[in-house]
Amino acid sequence: MNKEKLFLLDAYALIFRGYYAFIKNPRINSKGLDTSAVLGFTNSLFDLINKEKPKYIAVAFDKGGSKNRRMLFSEYKANRKETPEAIKISVPIIQNLLKSLNIPILELEGYEADDIIGTIAKQAEKESFQVFMVTPDKDFAQLVSKNIFMYKPSRLGNGIEIWGIDEVKKKFEVDDPLQVIDYLGMMGDSSDNIPGLPGVGDKTAKKFISTYGNIENLLKNTGQLKGKLKERIENNKHLGILSKKLATIQLDVPVKFNSNDCIFGELNDKSVLKIFEELEFNRLIETYKKKFSNSQLKENNDKDIRNIDLFNQVSEINEDSEYATIETKPHLYQLVSSYFELELLMQLLESQDSVCFDTETTSLNEMEAELIGISFSWKYKTGYFVLIPNDLEGKNLFIETLKRFFENDNIEKIGQNIKYDFKVLKKYGIELKGKLFDTMLAHYLINPDARHNLETLSKNYLGYKMIP
């Protein structure tokens, strides 16, 4: 018999993640309201509803922070910067949205969302539920069991990650998820001002757990350590014990799991749309009406909902395919193979403020690569491919002509892994000048752990499968 699934969302972790995803390009509406946090959270929530179609769901919020941890350590989280005003404003909006979506809210004065989720998860497990803790926060790994999982939402190039016991063991190099508490206690956490053991980082913590099993056993055997690390740990044993207590998620919060209280109820379409209209989430309004309203949820119960990315762009996916392709998407791609055509293109190129380009070569090694052609685009669904002639005279003529564009300081050049193109063009005597924007580097800065290749970015942001 299949177990019922319960999804517990860590509200603030998702809200902060949504806000900082837009930190370079905040979503400000016409009223001057920064809607980044609401948009990021809503997209994560809708993505979950789309993929999992949950029957049981709840969202946990912090309320007043952890009273118990502050009693243990008055400096707990004392180093945190003031919460951005945009996030403070967003929280009541998000809670109103959740109420309109009929999604239960869990919060209790003096307790963190981690502790509420931990307590509910363990109670639900005893009632034969499979529990999915929806959060990017690694601290939750300590709670993972046979029927409790971490559900790390998709973000940009990353897909969804679900951590069970095996994944936690591999990630933290432990024998039991409970040892994650010892790992966190040894390392500490600067964001929460948990001190940890001085001089102990990721590698050392994993080594100690492999050797000693837990922090208490380590502290009993400091005589086996050497040098300054031994001295530091022996002088700060109390910090290790304190840090482990601070890192431990409480499982005794005075809340009671009732499955009926966590049922995903009927949506209040009118209220949801009113919130979106006030926030000026025009694309979400369109998507919600088509895919998430009460009538559409029933109609599309067995269909996939279009992907919504963190930039509020809805993929225009063909009904018969997960991704659009060159065969299903209208486009205007033109080949430029004569010098006359190149001069016409140059007139267009040199009148632009910003242009995307990509070199086509014979090798991934820029030192060996021969230039075959260069593609350009600055307009939606429109592109040009310049075919470089094979003969030396024609090739030199094309290169000299294209120099006018590439060496123009006033035109921004956009590319994927521009460093490669820079080196290839330099071989042909072309200096890449002006403002440069590299989509691969930009994606790395936003999400360093994700895949950054063009195929992945195209699928995730454009819903488009590139030509193989």
Report what the structure shows.
The protein has 468 residues and is α/β, with parallel strands linked by helices. The protein folds into two domains: 1-314, Rossmann fold (3-Layer(aba) Sandwich), CATH 3.40.50.1010; 332-462, Nucleotidyltransferase, domain 5. It has helices spanning 11-21, 36-52, 67-72, 85-100, 113-126, 165-172, 179-187, 202-212, 215-220, 227-235, 237-247, 269-279, 282-292, 294-299, 339-349, 392-406, 418-427, 439-446, 454-462; strands at residues 4-10, 56-60, 105-106, 129-134, 148-152, 161-163, 332-336, 354-361, 371-379, 382-387, 412-415, 436-438. The strands form two sheets. A six-stranded mixed β-sheet has the order 3-2-1-4-5-6. The radius of gyration is 27 Å and the shape is globular.
Overall outline: globular
**Percent range of helical residues:** 40-55%
Q: Based on DSSP secondary structure assignment, what is the total number of beta strands?
A: 12
CATH level-four homologous superfamily name of the largest domain: 5'-nuclease
Would you give the CATH topology of the largest domain? Rossmann fold
Looking at the overall shape, the CATH architecture of the largest domain is 3-Layer(aba) Sandwich
Name of the top-level CATH class of the largest domain: Alpha Beta
Strand content: 5-15%
User: Which consecutive residue ranges, at least 5 long each, have pLDDT under 50?
Assistant: 296-321
**Spatial separation of the terminal alpha carbons:** 43 Å
- Class computed from helices, strands and strand pairing: alpha/beta
Strand ordering within the main sheet: 3-2-1-4-5-6
- What about the largest sheet? 6 strands, mixed
Mean pLDDT across residues: 87
Structurally, the number of domains stands at 2
Instruction: Please state the CA-atom Rg, rounded to the nearest Å.
Output: 27 Å
Count of alpha and pi helical runs: 19
